[in-house]
Write a structure and sequence with these properties.
This protein is of the alpha/beta class and 383 residues long. It has helices at 24-39, 60-67, 83-96, 126-129, 136-151, 155-169, 183-187, 216-221, 252-263, 280-290, 298-302, 321-325, 333-345, and strands spanning 7-13, 48-50, 73-75, 102-109, 191-193, 196-197, 207-214, 227-237, 272-275, 359-367, 373-382. The strands form three sheets. A five-stranded mixed beta sheet has the order 1-7-4-2-3, with helices on both faces. Strands 8-11-10-9 form a four-stranded mixed beta sheet, sandwiched between helices. A two-stranded antiparallel ribbon has the order 5-6. Helix 6 (155-169) packs across helix 10 (280-290) and helix 9 packs across helix 10. The longest helix is centred in the first third of the chain and has 16 residues, at 24-39. The radius of gyration is 19 Å and the shape is globular. The two termini are 18 Å apart. Mean pLDDT is 94; it is low at 117-122.
Length: 383
């Protein structure tokens, strides 16, 4: 049980979306310095370091040396875009176990400035799959098509997710896409992977971010708002060779109940949600699997501005998310935690700040829906 045994004391996101003049290690270092300054701590205070596959070289080994850290606990768990949400949970568990007291988590990358080379080979499954020419977009398009077939979901309903993100991004001076769009704009944009249009897809950006997770004693000694890690869950889901595969269900259906149970709350208690938004369908499936609505009712739930701060029932991704703001190094998990921390601290843009925001949920997907992926869920609380 990690409930209230660790706190997020520092959170920082790089403000730029195209960064041609910094290396990836420099970006990690910049983000680390920003998060530590936000927490009121120094590199010398860090005794735990967490990173994923975006960390250059041999990952944690190289970065600890490069950052000049003296640590006694390391974690390089790699689950794609959900890694950093899992890192928060693992950091909380390590702190609760006495393995460390100040954990630093970093992400950084430059896919906008560098040519992105998709991974080929390595896993036991790829020799049977890559040759078919599938891509991330057509895998997610397949999931969207199945949801439409099963439940009557429409492209117009999916478009509302992008519309909500754009309403929030207009208030973020760092967002890549700040123009407010309409449902018609989304469904009239070019088709990428039927039924997903270009505006159903996230942006590609350089950037990064960092988080600092600390023990309760250290958290209370700092002049920062207290943001507790109240509950966490993680899960992995594959297609099992196609046996019993349901393209409309994600691993979030396993991770979210675990997080809510540990936190002792229900989806109805959540004031704000940070949801991984690689595509609009990604958001819809996670909302259903987190229990904000029943399976098959996601289209109705997201329609008519229900996700827009100030008017909707469940404000989500108030920084514009991956759909409009940024998707650093093609991994959006850490930015979801950062915006949730802003909301709980009352530090989000005033135009999208959720009133009396004391409970937030964060959910992320890593990997590819329809194939194999991991999900991670956090429940965070302002105390």
């Amino acid at each position: 049980m990690i409930r209230n045994k660790a706190y997020i004391a520092g959170a920082w996101e790089h403000p730029l979306r195209v960064i041609p003049n910094l290396s990836t290690p420099e970006l990690h270092a910049t983000c680390a310095a920003g998060a530590l300054a936000d927490a009121g701590l120094s590199h010398g205070d860090v005794d735990g370091y967490f990173c994923a596959g975006d960390a250059p070289g041999n990952g944690a080994t190289n970065m600890v040396d490069y950052l000049g850290l003296k640590v006694k606990h390391l974690d390089s768990t790699e689950t794609g875009g959900s890694s950093y949400i899992i890192h928060v949970a693992h950091a909380a568990a390590a702190i609760a176990a006495g393995k460390c007291s100040v954990a630093l988590i970093t992400l950084a990358g430059r896919p906008k400035s560098e040519r992105f080379n998709a991974f080929r080979g390595g896993g036991p499954d790829e020799q049977f799959e890559w040759w078919t020419g599938y891509s991330t977009s057509n895998a997610y398009g397949m999931c969207a098509a199945r949801h439409m077939h099963e439940y009557g979901t429409t492209s117009q309903q999916l478009a509302w997710i992008k519309v909500a993100a754009s309403h929030h991004a207009q208030h973020n001076p760092h967002a890549m896409l700040r123009d407010v769009v309409t449902v018609e704009d989304v469904v009239n944009s070019p088709m990428i992977a039927d039924p997903l249009h270009r505006l159903d897809c996230c942006v590609v950006s350089d950037g990064g971010g960092a988080l600092v997770v600390v023990s309760p004693e250290i958290a209370r000694s700092l002049s920062r708002p207290l943001v507790a890690v109240r509950g966490a869950g993680e899960a992995v889901q594959g297609h099992g060779g196609g046996r019993g595969l349901d393209l409309t269900v994600t691993a979030t259906s396993q991770s979210a109940p675990r997080a809510f149970a540990e936190a002792g709350v229900t989806p109805a208690d959540i004031k704000y949600a940070s949801i991984y938004d690689s595509f609009t369908i990604t958001v819809l499936l996670q909302l259903e699997d987190m229990g904000f609505c029943a399976k098959g009712e996601g289209g109705q739930f997201v329609a008519d501005g229900n996700l827009i701060a100030g008017t909707g029932r469940l404000p989500f991704n108030t920084d514009g998310g991956g759909l409009c703001n940024n998707h650093p190094t093609n991994r959006g998990g850490i930015t979801k935690v950062i915006e949730a921390v802003r909301q709980l601290r009352g530090e989000a843009n005033p135009a999208v700040q959720v009133p009396d925001c004391d409970l937030a949920a964060v959910n992320g997907i890593g990997g590819i829906l329809g194939l194999r992926h991991a999900a991670a869920t956090l429940v965070l609380e302002r105390q």
